[in-house]
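User: structure tokens for DUF6927 domain-containing protein, please.
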Amino acid sequence: MTWNATPIGRGRPAGISDAEFFTNHEDLTEDGAFRLLDTYSTKRAFYVAREALSGSHEDVGSVSAVVVSKEWTRSEFGWKVEHETLNPAPIYTTIAMLDRLTPTEDLAANIWRERATAFAHRPVATVGDTIALTEPHKFSDGVRRGTFEVVGHGEMHSLDDGRTVRIDDWREREYTIVAVAAQPDLLGLVTVDDMAAAETASTLF
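Assistant: Done. Predicted tokens:
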């Protein structure tokens, strides 16, 4: 599927939700052939469980998943619609939505459902844990980094080069927890030197 884009304001009014923008959008309803049963929105994607109303595309009454990848610029909103039969990359949806999907014999769709289910049940990293991204992230300085200590609110400490970086959507990415946070040590208080170092550390996006 190809990417589509529309101006923010004129094409997509500022402040409206993904659900408001896509509920009756032809990319998802396909001229009334489908209706949306459930939706879930994240920073990177909009997930939809939709029911087939006519048999021209899928069996009437069947429920399948559609993933809408999203990108924002200062002036445009972009999206790409992929049916689960394409095994889309985003998988950060809910168990409740996955439970609404009816059985399918499509291999790619079942692979996507298995990936999404496993992701929903994965151990969730918390502040202080160390994670390794399945796919390293390329930052604005052109460097790819993949191993981080979770600091909080999107801030990460790169163990690749010691830089303080930011990945707002890290929770939506596939990762492995390689080390859990140590238990708090009341004697290990933050020092003035630690605070000074944190203030001077550069943050990448």
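User: Anything notable?

Assistant: The first helix runs from residue 18 to 22.
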